[in-house]
Every structure is written in C-alpha cells, then in structure tokens.
Request: fold
Amino acid sequence: MSTPELEVQTHPIATRITHWLMALSILILIGSGWRIYNASPIFNFTFPEEITLGGDVEAALALHNDPGVASAIAWHFAAMWLLLVSYLGFMLWNLFSGHFRRDFLPVGPVSFWRDFYAAARFKLDHRLGEYNAVQRVAYWGVLFAVAMMLLSGITIWKPVQTYPLETLFGGFQGARIVHFLFMSAIVLFIVIHVALVILVPKTFVAMTRGRATAKPHKGGA
Amino acid sequence: MDLERRRLFGGSLSLGALTMLTGCDISDHDSVQRALAFMSRFNDRVQAAIFRPNRLAPTFSEADAVKNFRYNAWYGPDKSPKLDADQYRLRLAGLIADKRPWTVERLYALPQVTQITRHVCVEGWSMIGKWSGTPLREFLGRVGADTTAKYVGFECADGYYDGIDMATALHPQTLMAFKLSDDILPTRYGYPFKIRIPTKLGFKNPKFVTTIYVTNQQPKGFWTDRGYNWFSGI
Reply:
C-alpha cells in the first residue's frame, strides 16, 4: 500500500514560546481585569468572583478593608509586561520569519465570505498546517485586539503622561469602554479557538511539540 | 463526529482545564505575593522614569467640575475627624529648615491658585473637581525644605499616611488644597486641607494632613501597606 503524502503542521520554537506566554499573560490579565472591573463596574453587571483573579476577597476585606483589588492590580500590572514582551516577540518573529506573509496572506472579503459560508454549512475543507480565510481574519483580528488592549490599557494606566492619547478613545471613560470591548472580543476568540483545537487536537500537538502530521482526508468529514 | 475525533476530544480536556487557571487562585501564596511585590517595585521605577516634571495634567472647564464630589474613604463620612481651627497645628519634620508649626489662619493666608482637574481612582472611576490652594513646592520653598531629598511624607488625623517622590511634590499642579468648589474644604473632604495631586491616583491625595516631612527614606503608605503600588502615578 502506498503512503499518501501526509499533512504537516510545524511551529518553530519561537512561535510556540511566545504563543504560550501570550496565552498565560492573557489569562492572568482577563482574570485580574474582571476583579478590577468589579470594583467599579462600567455596565450593569459584575463578574462572578470565583472566576476572577486576586485572592480571597473575604480575607482581604477582614484584614484591610480591601475587596481583593490590590492583588488583582498587582497581577494586572505584572502580566502586562509579559504580554507586551511576548506579543512584540511574536509579531517581530513572524514578520521576519515570513510566517505572516506565507500563511496569513492574502486575505480579503471575498475569500472570507466564501470560506465563512462553506464553514457554516460544514463544507469547509481543512488541512493541517493551512489556514482558511476565516482563520486568517480571526488571527489578524485577535492580534489587532491585543494591540488595542495594550494601547487602551496604557491610556488607562497613564492618562496624564500619555495625554492626549485618551482623546483617541473619546476620553478616559471611552478608553475603559474600548478596553472592555476588546477584552470581550479576545474572550470570544479564546472560546472559539479552544473549541476548534478540541475538534482538531493535532493543532495542539503542533503548538506544544512543534510538529504534527495527519493523513490527508476529504472535507466535510 | 467520527469515532477518532470523539476519542481525541476526551484527550484534549486538559486544555480546557488550562483555561480554568483563574479559577484556582494562587494569589494569596507567599511566593506569589513576593513576586507581585517585586514587579510592583519594578513598576515604581518605570513610573518614576516616565514621569515628566513639567507635564501638566489636563485641565477642564468650570462646567465640567462636579459640585457634589464623591466621598471616598475606608470609613463613613460621619467618622471623619473634626479638626478645630484654633487647636489645629501643621507639624513639619525631617529635612526642613523652619519647623515651626503652622496654624490654619497662616496656611489659608498663603497665595493660592485654582485648578480644575480630574481625580482618577485606583478602582477605575474618575471625577473632575475644582480645587484651590497653595502649590506644595511654594510651601516647601517657604519653610526651607531640602528639595534635593527624595521624598515628601504625610501623616493625617484619620490615621492615614502616605508619601510621594520629590519630583511630584515639586510639580506645579501639586497643591495643598484648601478649597473644593470654591468652599473651604468641608470636614469629610479633609479639613483643613488635603494634598491634591492630579498626576497621582486618588489614594495618593491624603486628607486631614497634620504632618509634612521631607526624607530620603521612602515613606510608607496606608494602601501600599495593603498591597497597592507605591508610586501610583497616572
């Protein structure tokens, strides 16, 4: 029996390290961010305390009248450096290694809607190591969202030193809202991203061990 | 979904578990707290480096200023210390040449400026207010403070304590604020005066100040002792 050519997905070590550092820092930033949000909610809801990061609220309250916000802020302003460094590393590496150009371009509305329509009818073929137009848009989108988080985040952190950067977001409160909206977009991305990885677990193997192979198959399986 | 996929689905649950990281909270571990404190001190240095001494906080119009400013403290407004103008004395300590205490009368006779700036709370809310008072640098000059020292510290009648870097103390918008919305600072807002610093978070604006001291040792802060960042510039 002749062996058909395998589908191969490889991720260089630099991509894997920066991917997982971004993932870790984003989880910390979301968890602590939700705790900080709860201290002064923008909208008419708060996040359940159990899914936020920042330690035992009751203990912090009893000990020093602090609703666990101190630790959440400390997490947030520690993890932001990790995100900044890993994001810049990821962007620069993939820019110069050609990964962006090779695998994420070109992308346009025509191919996006074509692939989106096919995916919605479960007719989209997928091949390990190749990115369809919907994926390309999603990855560009989340990378843009992280950039906006960093930009709106530094505006909220240092509104005076970065003034008039906040006017870009319609003021200080606008920057908080933008920060919240792009957080929501990233959370949505993570949910879909993780769901798809669960459906095609070899992508997880590729992102951890560096290489995964799959037998070629037909679409719509 | 075919059988192979279903099997792999189960094998990938550990990835789902990873996303629950924020659920198993390790924040209160000593080693985590030490690491976070280390990063907080790193952030102190970053903030001191990016602070520009002559960069002014944005100012707003009279119409933007809130008349009924939000009360904020760890105790209720009825617990605010009621300081008596006749008995009150501002104590001076540390690297200051003329340490004679100041009465409210003498303080209020100092030349004053007015600013309409934004108060930003560490929790995220912000509010624009109108404050009038004497620039702290003007006062430090009058009492012969050693402005080459590193820090200025404050002690307050409500048990609060905090301190700031000298660059911020000498910032033109850092005030000893005697008035809020053109009225003598009401008791609950810190009578006889509060330190108003539009380049710092709200909790670095101590009220009911009873002692000002100049030092080279970083003063402790009430909220810093409770895990908040020391510099807390904005």
